[in-house]
């Protein structure tokens, strides 16, 4: 009883929040405006970060060693490319072999539906087709 | 190219993921419940004549053959066969079976085995669906 009441409250809440109306439209518009403003200001601040360092004092740091330079400008891009390639191939690695028309098919046979009668094992014993099959029909198609 | 070769050489494993098998199993059960017929699906390589294999496999269903509809898909030979039993073919005539097999072949040609089987089952269930007849399967 209690849970039924709670679920009905949830349902009305959902209906109330999803009902399209002037209030909902205004709220959505306000949220959109706030998001756009925040994004514009934040990206400007982030882009201007080096400019803010102009007046700073301190040691500028040593020259990069050859090893660090190579690691930074070759190692990082290669690692990023490898990561992206791995993520691209991950779905096909997980899902296993996929059927591609025209390519050889090597997967094990699959049977769907209850296993009825003798199944594949009983096929060699069939000398003639019973009426149930012989009087039946069917169709076929190629691709 | 080498990647595709590696995929093709994968030794015998299941052709379908768990979710795909689940979809087909559900489609088989739904089609059976909607029509009162018994649907069976076989997907695999077949040596020799596919049509004769399908008919013998249908006969091997035993008592279920009368109301049985067997769909045999050979992805290697690129052939789909539908065999309907003596009673089943009155409800699912050859024209409806042919239409379903064509629709399935179209999906298979696009590489979608699961979608083709599920859609074909749905089409056949729709063609064979009718108001339920009480005591239809009783002996007397």
Q: Which fold name fills CATH's third level, the topology of chain B?
A: Diaminopimelate Epimerase, Chain A, domain 1
Largest sheet of chain B: 3 strands, mixed
What percent of residues of chain B adopt helix (DSSP H or I)?
40-55%
User: How much strand of chain A?
Assistant: 5-15%
Multimeric status of the protein? heterodimer
Approximate shape of chain B:
globular
Computed structural class of chain A: mainly alpha
Description:
The complex is a heterodimer of chains A (about 140) and B (about 140). In chain A, about 55% of the residues lie in helices and about 5% in strands. Chain A is mainly α and about 140 residues long. Chain A is elongated. Chain A has a domain at about 20-50. Chain B is an alpha+beta fold. Helices cover about 50% and strands about 15% of the residues of chain B. Chain B has helices spanning about 1-10, 20-35, 50-60, 90, 95-110, 115-130, and strands spanning about 40-45, 70-75, 80-85. In chain B, a hairpin with a 4-residue loop joins strand 2 and strand 3 (about 80-85). In chain B, helix 2 packs parallel to helix 6 (about 115-130) and helix 5 runs antiparallel to helix 6. The interface between A and B is large, with 42 and 72 residues.
Quick recap of the structure?
By secondary structure, chain A is mostly helical. Chain A is built from five helices and two strands, in the order H-H-H-H-E-H-E. Chain A has a domain of 31 residues.
């Amino acid at each position: 009883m209690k849970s039924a009441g709670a679920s009905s409250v949830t349902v009305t809440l959902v209906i109330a929040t999803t009902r399209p109306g002037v209030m909902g439209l205004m709220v959505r518009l306000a949220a959109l405006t706030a998001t756009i403003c925040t994004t514009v200001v934040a990206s400007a601040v982030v882009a201007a970060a080096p400019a803010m360092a102009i007046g700073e004092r301190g040691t500028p740091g040593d020259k990069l060693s050859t090893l660090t330079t190579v690691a930074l400008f070759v190692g990082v891009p290669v690692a990023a490319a490898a990561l992206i390639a791995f993520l691209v191939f991950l779905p096909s690695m997980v899902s296993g072999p996929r059927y591609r028309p025209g390519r050889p098919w090597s997967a094990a046979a699959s049977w769907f539906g209850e296993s009825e009668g003798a199944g594949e094992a009983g096929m060699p014993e069939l000398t003639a087709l019973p009426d149930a099959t012989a009087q039946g029909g069917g169709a076929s198609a190629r691709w | 190219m080498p990647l595709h070769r590696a995929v093709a050489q994968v030794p015998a494993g299941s052709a379908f993921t768990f979710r795909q098998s689940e979809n087909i199993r559900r489609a088989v059960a739904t089609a059976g419940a909607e029509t009162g017929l018994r649907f069976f699906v076989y997907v695999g390589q077949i040596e020799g004549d596919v049509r004769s294999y399908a008919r013998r496999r249908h006969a091997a269903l035993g008592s279920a053959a009368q109301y049985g509809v067997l769909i045999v898909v050979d992805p290697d030979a690129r052939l789909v066969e539908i065999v309907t039993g003596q009673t089943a073919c009155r409800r699912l005539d050859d024209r409806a079976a042919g239409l379903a097999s064509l629709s399935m072949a179209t999906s298979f040609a696009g590489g979608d085995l699961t979608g083709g089987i599920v859609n074909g089952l749905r089409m056949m269930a729709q063609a064979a669906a009718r108001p339920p007849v009480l005591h239809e399967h009783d002996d007397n």
